Amino acid sequence: MAISLGSIADDYTGASDLANTLTKNGLRTVQTVGIPDPSLALPDIDAVVVSLKIRSVPASEAVNAATKAERWLRQQGAGHVLYKICSTFDSTDAGNIGPVTEALSEAAGGGGVLVTPAFPETGRTVYLGHLFVGGQPLNESPLKDHPLNPMHDANLVRVLARQSRGTVGLIDLPAIAAGAAAAKAKLDALARTGATMAIADAIFERDLETLGEIALETPVSTGASGLGLGLARALVRSGRISGSATGEDVIRPVGGLSAIIAGSCSKATLRQIDVAERVMPVLRLDPERLLAAGPDQIAAAISWAGDRISAGPVVVAASAAPETVSRLQSQYGREASGHAIETATSIIAAELVERGVRRLVVAGGETSGAAVDKLAIPAFLIGPEIAPGVPVLRTVGNAQGDMLLALKSGNFGGEDFFTAALAMMQ
Ligand SMILES: Nc1ncnc2c1ncn2[C@@H]1O[C@H](COP(=O)(O)OP(=O)(O)OP(=O)(O)O)[C@@H](O)[C@H]1O
Ligand SMILES: O=C(O)[C@@H](O)C(=O)CO
């Protein structure tokens, strides 16, 4: 297996999102869960996206895991490694975008690193270093209420600088509109002044194509799926990759029962649960009782779902509105409550698979990571897109045999996402 592009994703839904973008742009792509065992048989591929769960862990843990994955990707032939972060720059002043980017850059010999979360297809644009989500500045968007890393500053140069050792520059839109050579010269000039990273503006896909061309000349970049699009198109344009891949021939029916597990508390996911409730049973977990009497609540949820899944799909959701989330966090702590709920939802997911579920939708990055780890799935092949940023995934090398999953980023998908996903997962 000699790949052209490697990526390290800081959560599993982000990995899935990027793998979808790379596949749509012609790269034969596999998403692995961590560094795969050498015995795992993988097809001939152009790109590997290594899913890690390092967005909300201590920076030292994130750096350690990412640098190991980078070494493995270089051994597989990757000339460029993209650190895939959230298009809404999910992070705190402790990291982990800055610490991991600096560590990957140092491992690759230093030099300026392009950083951009722009992903216009999902309404993420960057202008003068400020991130807009669907037209709202980041700090005025629903991301201000994120359970784990609420975003209160749209100026990414400031946000990244607060979590980094080095200085952070800006490559503004006029520099990018002037073309790849001009933008690369700006990146190199910033590096000479000591700026180890540069936030890059991007509004349209053409800006991302320019950034992808520049990034490919460097060993490391950091960004969301938009930068992945730019890198993929630059690789195909260079002739190094045929660009013939599609996700259409990957998915075959797996049968079995289906279920949806939701841990995301995003506005989009809350709406998707409400819409799904019109056509399928929904169990809304009581997080306070889940934290106070976890085993009993988990057993009750498994029994509830187990009684219904033979008749059709069900939703088991921990998701709640911001004010409810805040109340729980003030009582039990942000990280402790998040981790406890992820653990609970992962146990429920695994128990439903034991009861015959082979088509599973999980909403939320951390929630997906916990569930996929609990199921011990080593890798995924990438199928067709359900909604921007969310493909159908087919498991590879897992004990349960062929399964289809959709790992939905919290903010992604239309209001009918759950029924649309299951309609594509037979
Ligand atoms: N009712 C709740 N109260 C407090 N925390 C909750 C509740 N329900 C879920 N959580 C926690 O909120 C966090 C949601 O994070 P997750 O990454 O799964 O979703 P997301 O951030 O919306 O998705 P993505 O990262 O893909 O955008 C998890 O740690 C989950 O355990
Ligand atoms: O880029 C995004 O918004 C998603 O891929 C994501 O990171 C979800 O956690």
UniProtKB/TrEMBL annotation:
Sequence ranges assigned to domain Four-carbon acid sugar kinase N-terminal in this UniProt record: 5-229
Reactions mediated catalytically: 3-dehydro-L-erythronate + ATP = 3-dehydro-4-O-phospho-L-erythronate + ADP + H(+); 3-dehydro-D-erythronate + ATP = 3-dehydro-4-O-phospho-D-erythronate + ADP + H(+)
Any one Pfam family match given in the protein's UniProt record, by short name: SBD_N
GO molecular-function term, one example from the UniProt record: ATP binding
Keyword Transferase: yes
InterPro entries: 4-carb_acid_sugar_kinase_N, 4-carb_acid_sugar_kinase_N_sf, NBD_C, NBD_C_sf, OtnK
Keywords: ATP-binding, Carbohydrate metabolism, Kinase, Nucleotide-binding, Transferase
UniProt superkingdom: Bacteria
Documented EC number(s): 2.7.1.217
Role: Catalyzes the ATP-dependent phosphorylation of 3-oxo-tetronate to 3-oxo-tetronate 4-phosphate.
Similarity section: Belongs to the four-carbon acid sugar kinase family.
Protein name in the entry: 3-oxo-tetronate kinase
Taxonomic placement: Bacteria, Pseudomonadati, Pseudomonadota, Alphaproteobacteria, Hyphomicrobiales
